[in-house]
Amino acid sequence: MSLLTMALLLAASFALGALPLTSWAVRLVGGGDLRRLGTGNVGVSAAFIHGGKLAGIAAVLAEVGRGILPVLAGRFYFPDAPEIAIALLIPLVAARYAIAGGGGVTNAVWGLLVFSPPVAVSSGIWGLLVWGLAQRWWGKGDRARLFASRCGCLCTPLWVWVWRQSMPEFLAAAGLALLLAAINIRQGDDMALSKSEQLFSLDDSLDAAICGDKAAKLSQLKRAGFNVPNGWILSQEAGIGHRASGIGHRGNSDKLSISDALIQNLKAKIPNRIIVRSSAAGEDGDFSSAAGQYQTIGPVLTEAELLDGINCCRQSYWTSEAVAYRRQRQLPDTQMAVLIQPYIESQIAGVMFSRNPLDGGSQIIIEALPTGAESVVGGQVTPVHLEVDFSQPETLEQNLSALEFSSILDKQIIAELVKQAQAIEAFFHGIPQDIEWSWDGEKVWILQSRPITNLQPFWTRTIAAEVIPGAIRPLTWSINRPLTCGVWGEIFQVVLGERAAHLNFNETATLLGSHAYFNATLLGEIFRMMGLPEQGLEFLLRGQKMGKPPLGKILPSLPGLWRLVQRERALNADFEGDRTSIFLPALQNLQNYQFPMPNAQFPMPNSQFPMPNSQCPIPNAQFPMPNSQFPIPNYQYLSELLERAEQIQEWLKPITYYNILGPIGLAIRKAIFRVPDEWLDNGNAPEIASVRALQQLAKKLRQAAISQSNETISTAQLTQMFAESSALQAEFAEWLDTYGYLSEVGTDIAVATWREQPEIYQKLIVTMAQKSAVTNLDESRKLGLSFWQKWRLDKCQERTTVKNEISQVYARLLADLRWTFLEIEACGLEMQVFEEAGDIFYLEFGEIQQWIRSGASVGFQDTISQRRDRLLADRDRPIPAVVYGNLLPNSRQRSIDSATSATGIMQGIPASIGCVEGFIKICRSVTTDLGESAIVVVPYTDAGWAPLLLGATAIISEVGGQLSHGAIIAREYKIPAVMNIAEATTRLRDGQKVRVDGYLGTVELLE
């Protein structure tokens, strides 16, 4: 029985040693593979060096536990034979080396410490004494350290004999010591890879701070499978001692003290011709290219030429031009890493840009010469120049066929270059790339890839299209931008703390082509500081999902994230407190104001819908209309209006915070508790409640009409009946009183509210009443959820309700702000400051403040006219989802039909299930007449679009996701919908027949 137990323990010990615990720890915390880093040793020291402190600590804990467990098991099962406890460490260490790739020293040390603390402490002290003596003999270095380590292992049996006086224990310890010493001699030592001797490979995961950005990026590409030549890197301090400043240390002092063995090693790796390339810190970086600043030497053949080439390349770091470049770009003086690669015997070489470097447009630029790529970048010869438009992926093949191919580039090479350019840009998360390439007659080699530095920063519509959709007037932007930037800045400062001190949150958003964009470069930097994965930038630029962040990278931000979580958890209570103390009194205060609406501003059409009691469409209960005319315009009255506008903006600051944090919290809760959108009841959302109320009003109108006539009811009859019914008119006035603050775009104060255009919604009531059946949306929701599902739903439903209440307060304050500006504009029209209604929205708020406070006679006509013309031009132009740099790319309006599309299918985000065929109707405003059975194409959907969307057979939106207003409305009313069809209003045309599949998220062109 004891032999069987011993055999099982030996087998278990071997199996335990084979587990790659350190490798797992580094992968989990640091995200690296130790077998591909440094020497390939999967040990504790390698975990600290290549995985970082947290990975090293995790590895230590794992190996300590692994070393202790066999010893405890041996002492437990064989208390009378302690030598077995030591012997069990032998198979563990052997498996640790042979299978798991480690050395086993940590396991042995902690196992011996548990077995006999005096033995372990004595061996450690002896090792330290030997290390001190060895340093006196050999000097400080790895040789002394390794000698001391091996002596410490070999002396352990002696200390076992001294303290234990047991021959079996001595023999077991001797076997373990010999095994450890043998492994130590054979195994690579990562600590020995000092900066002055280390030779890195492009097959390693390289640190740009040590090997430079050029080598680090090529390493990433090579390990990802791109055609990158092999390469080895001398780190920035290879062969050179540290110096405080390089200036004044040029010439012979820059000669490298590289050993002959290292040069011979490099020449053995590359027996043929070699090229020596610079890879300095900041070279080919995200914000500086250092193009042409440093020297490339090649081809070289002999060892002497290689050493001279490395010296010449390194010395180019200290030329006056290179030093001046670093001063201008505010780059520190460090050292230069050197990249040594095989020299590619190219037949054709050149450079290419994955996007137009002038404006970030959708063209791949290729330049080539029948020589090396350095001839192209040198600017001495005019290369072959090609531009390949990839704005429509489905026509890329046709664009390639239409190119006039040169004598040196055929279609296959160009197609391969285009493929490589797009793949490399995608690999670097959508960042446009400047790529150096070479063709050797068989394959395309990638020699270099760096960001196109002038296409910075990147601006994305991914978030902005949801927050502030559509073309935006200056007044709206001058108010929304500081509110939005301020709140996002506050949220990020909560998470990052002092690390956010250098960030300028005023640059979070901008206007390009009159459309709002968020700064993806700034947000990407914030994501990296928070430890989020690099896919965060891809999420911003391409709308793709973010991966899971490595635990080691996100740990430093955990305190800040916890502070944000605490804020999110307290949001309901905080909002309720502010609602009582701030928002309700504010709204009551504003309700007491009188908002006169001059007929000159919004003249009522001679329509067939008389207003209730012949009054203005503003309900008296909420906004009592004065019996008198407008106050005589004067600057005192204007100052009062200005103060009111400023006060509303102060109230908007806290509600904007809730309006941003609320949806973030809901999205997180939905993800954690896995609650689908269909479970949530959005009945208190203004856009849903308003349509439900309007639909009930239409139902009453239809019932009244049916009771009076059994014949088919015409539009004229319904219109007349609605006009003559005082009860229906009163209900409509009450509806305006409740929901009149809503508009097409809740965040855009330049867009008219519902109360300002009641005739549209009166007509909509008649349209609804004409339908044979009016859906009853007040039916109780019957989801049939289990207890567990109901519990999960409860965790999200309360936040959904609060989010909708926040949206209501936010929209009401913005509506009151709009009406205040309309009153200022009315005074300006009387004073002839403005020429026509709507002019005020083409001014910025600061300009309005300066005009009113100065009391001077001003003329804004030229400014307003220029801005109006610009807005009209921007409204109809295609707006790219991403802008690279601060300039919109030149683009022409595109239209898609079956003749120009390979598949005829446009992919978007599925928002509401159902599949229908119909004809397109482009709608840029809720005033658009849909006609019968139209498939509505809109630039965006906000709360104000709800009534219009009810008349649609299906909905296609340029922007938005499954949580957008349009998606919620579509699901509520069972209307098929697809969101996020880029440039749909310009790519599709009125009357075009399509098939909309809301489950797959596709729009198929049928003609």
Would you kindly provide a brief summary of this structure?
With 1007 residues, this protein is of the alpha+beta class. The protein contains 36 helices and 22 strands.
The whole-number mean of residue pLDDT values reads: 80
Largest sheet: 8 strands, mixed
Q: What is the 3D form?
A: globular
Enumerate the strands of the largest sheet in spatial order, edge to edge or round the barrel: 15-22-21-17-18-19-20-16
**Low-confidence residue ranges:** 239-254, 376-380, 597-630, 892-901
Question: What separation lies between the terminal Cα atoms?
Answer: 83 Å
Q: Please, how many helices?
A: 36
Helix content: 40-55%
Sheet-strand content, in percent, reads 5-15%
Radius of gyration: 36 Å
| Secondary-structure class | alpha+beta
- Beta strands, count: 22
